[in-house]
Design goal:
heterotrimer, A alpha+beta, B alpha+beta, C alpha+beta, A: alpha+beta, Gyrase A, domain 2, Alpha-Beta Plaits, 2 domains, 6-stranded antiparallel β-sheet, 5-stranded antiparallel β-sheet, 11 strands, 21% helix, globular, B: alpha+beta, two-stranded antiparallel sheet, 2 helices
Amino acid sequence: MSEAVTALGGASFNGLVAVRERPLTGMITIRADLSDKAVAGAVGSVTGLDMPGTGRIVEGEGCAIAWMSPDEALVFCDYAEAWDKVAVLQGALAECHALVANVSDARAVFELDGAAARDVLAKLTPADLRDGAFAPGTMRRTRLAQVAAAVWPTEAGTIRIVCFRSVADYVMQLLSVAADPDAPVGWHG
Amino acid sequence: MLTLKCPCCGVMTDETELHAEGEAHLKRFGPGSSDEDFTGYLFQRENPKGIHFERWRHAYGCGKYFHAARCTVTLEVFGTYPAQTLEPPQEIKDAISAKRPGWSWREMSN
Amino acid sequence: MSHRLPQGGRLIDRRKPRTFRFNNRAMRGMKGDTLASALLASDQMLVGRSFKYHRPRGIVASGAEEPNALVNLGTGDRFEPNQRATTTELFDGLVAKSQNHFPSLDFDIGVVNDALSKFLSAGFYYKMFIHPRPFWKHVYEPFIRQSAGLGKAPDAEARDVDTYEHMYAHVDVLVVGGGVAGLQEARAAGEAGKEVLLIEQTAHWGGRAPVDGGSVGGGPVDKWVDETVAALAEMPNVRMRLRMMGAGVYDHSYALGYERVSDHQPGNDAPRHRLWRIRATEIVTATGAIERPLSFAGNDIPGVMLASAVRDYVVNYGVTPGRRVAIATNNDDAYRTALALADAGVGVPVIVDARSEGGPLAEAARDRGIRVEFGMGVGRLLGGKRVTGVGICRMDSDGSALHEIACDAVAMSGGWSPVVHLWSHCGGKLNWNETRAHFAPDPARAPTGADGQAFVRAAGAASGALTLPEILDGAEDWEEAPLSPVWQMPAQAEKALQGKSWLDFQNDVKVSDVRLAAREGYESVEHTKRYTTLGMATDQGKLSNINGLAVLADALHKDIPAVGTTTFRPPYTPISMGAIAGEARGALFQPIRRTPMHDWHDAHGADWEPVGAWRRPYAFVQNGEDVHDAVMREVTNTRQNLGLLDASTLGKLIVKGPDAGRFLDMMYTNMMSTLKPGRCRYGLMCSENGFLIDDGVVARIDDETFLCHTTTGGADRIHGHMEDWLQCEWWDWKVWVVNATEQFAQVGVVGPNARKVLEKLGGMEVSADALPFMAWADGEIGGFRARVYRISFSGELSYEIAVDAGQGQAFWDALMEAGEEFGVMPYGTEALHIMRAEKGFIMIGDETDGTVIPQDLGLNWAISKKKEDYLGKRAQERDHMTDPDRWQLVGLETLDGSVLPDGAYAVEAGWNDNDQRRVQGRVTSTYHSPTLGRGIAMGLVRHGPDRMGEVLDFPVPGGTTVRAKIVDPVFYDREGEKQNV
């Protein structure tokens, strides 16, 4: 377990914004009918959080739940605890029709930190990043250039990005090119 | 460059976040069916100049398949709706009838 | 000749000179000049040669509509052909060369085409290059390739050193055009609280108004412009960008903006161009209007310019095109040019007006002492490489009786056409305005969007409102008398003159060419365009389209609206390929998918193979080897010792639910629901059309859970396929699917020593009893949490082990270290392919090609007889699928031990109806097998399994024939003992 690594070993780049690969992050996919009270109850009992509404992310102490689709949620937790949490969630959901899977290693997580974060992201995704459409609490699945990604603005003012592990290198390069210090746009904010 | 509202996650999504998945409301024919019914299921498709019902997948999004009622000439979208239905819901049909009275598509009509 | 005036030029800064080179000559301009204005200031009117006839070409316009002043701009990696001098902002050190001539601009042997013009009229190549047929390949085509094109292609080794990017933007209102109409629209929308983006393709706000004059609220219009710009800059909800062109309007209110970020300051590190991908609720096209030339003989001689362009150069850049500038017109607007020239002290020897009378502007010109001739036209122009005089005649004559007046430039105006391109891109329709002789947007037939409502509105001159008072409240300007449409000057010009009256200056299309097309039956304006190439040059017909279709209408005796316009297509003016690509170049051209062990492979000699978007090692090439050597070594070592395969890319789909078994019974040809927990089964998937689409091993995890492996290329596709059927057909079945492919690194530990290395690492039981062939188990190996599948694609003792991807590299390292004493070596995809071929295992994509069914491959055992239904079952009952003549899988061994070429066909006696040899089989996979020391192949042969031992003939490239014997496809370990130990 101590030998686990992130896709890029903590790569970072400084330009228009700081681009950082985040450390190992626990991520668990739950396939279940999210509108089912029993499901929400079971998940809530393990995470201490309410099930998020459509397109939302709910954050708590060291834990978060993101809505991925009407029957898919993504639970964020401590990487070291992920497998145990999978077992606990499976137990809690045993009476429901549900699938719980550890996807912590299948993803890479990035953060954009700086006032120009929305501008940098806007070079890569057609998603509406205006304040009204993309405020903290929003979880938006979209594409960054040619790969799938999930993006969300944090309360702290940064933007977090999740993509598939296999394209971590591509996404890091994409974000770094978009954050080229010689390429300010001055569009958002 | 189309935009469609995904009825599953509510996002107004760009064509580049979607995959086009062909005609909606296909009826599957399997073992026991006539050659005619079966080859119709495999190969016969509508190609209308006007109202059409088609499938889309929100590939770079929630991953769900959904249906859209769209005019192939003007690209007007009359509505999108979840895929778990054998025919378009009444409100979609009504939306079409309001703008294109007398429409028809396969065995469906105004 | 053309020169800089002693004063004036509102856009230039005379204190800041700029040096540049044109055709290797050093020249000087000012800050604020365009390349065109700087060339004119240096008396360089001649700027190129036309496409077909190599006629001398001079600057005609002042903006994006310029057809002639195309230059090869820059050098080395920044070289770019076909750049318009009128839209190139002058910078220090600019280097430009004129195009399409040899040996020089002034003396071009290509002008021989002009002498032969009688034979090179419209559509000549449809008639000329046909016979004799053999001449096409070696005479005509090379000649055409050599002479086609205008600018020089960049060197093959050159690489674009600039960067480009995209930008997605969402706004309420996009206003295209920063002239008075656009400024007004932006202000109104801004004051209504909308989020507005206002874009302007040039570097300045205000459009034509500062040159054309007029007043607003009592003050000069350029003061209104400055005030409005300042007010807009104060509004936080309004954003404004210069040097940004509206390139196209597309469905559902989408528009492209082309921002030339640093063309005017090349060599800095900013992106050169930015392509804006804009979603706007409403788009306003305030794109102005473009002046039309007049069609008279000699109207292409350098020195002939659009009247508005002449005053643009005088007022904006302090440059006059000549010392004696004649004016030819059919409208009042051109008189503005006369007044501007007079104000600048430039002589205007005559104004030739096709009408019988003019308005107050004409009066004003006369009052300044300028000679105005009404009812007259230009019969022909005098001069070769430069205008020397104008021969005027009565408008209602055939142009033969001329009165000559000396001049060195001619300003022509045939009226104004609204710029309707963006309006038209997405289906907006036009009306013909008889009074103004132009097409203008029909507001009742605007482009409509997703809601069926209009999403584009035209404003200002682009909507047909050509005068300032029509556009701005409180504006005042000269009253204008109506124009008189003139499509040919003079009206009854004799044929010879029509042959010298140019419509399309860049592609060399004359009035006579359009009449020829009409005579030859090309009556549709779309046909005429292609037959004559009118409007097909890089200027997309901005100066020629309307004049051309008016001539066509006349030739066909039809009304102009009945002839109509050709289709307007984006981009409005050419945009760079770099802008379209954005960041997607080099390393970012496409995403490359890497496994967790990618870097290790790279450091250890991996010869990379693309498999979908993944990179997998084909082989690991060690010192002194070539790739083939490496592959042979890897096969041999794996069969004798121990091989490691990175199998991480194979799909892993978790399928769970009470209906999971039932669902997989439909997805696979096999009966999967009977698979017991702890066991694995190789499964086949077919399309509804019956053909094999994927294969892989399925593991039963527990009562409700399966793990399905797919091919590398199939993972995302089969995941989508499963979701498709679950969401759209069997939505009441309770099944969930998760694509867990990337969660796990997966390593094949393969060979006689496979168990030894795992036992050395310690942990879970991997003995033959604890983990028999085709079983799986969860546990721990060497401290790594692992799931081990006892499956074999090589036929050797084999364990495929899944660990969390984050530990993949560490696990691989542990195996390499522990395996050293057992002779461990990594192996790649080619060794994988050879070993499976030695065992007669099929490969999706080799043995299958989209037309192959399991029954062709001897895989009937994988098709459940007990199932009533599965995807593909009904299709496999069709006649063609049950035909006994379908080619079947066999092994092939060449008689001489050589390797059969991939894709080779086995012939039989006779010829088919297409005069092709009859065939009876083909090669699907072929390799040299180091295990057997000979070439082996698999193939599909008619009645193959019944013809064991028969020898077939395979003709190969080069003319020889290879003979090969039909054999069992399992070449090695027929009993399957080695994988079972």
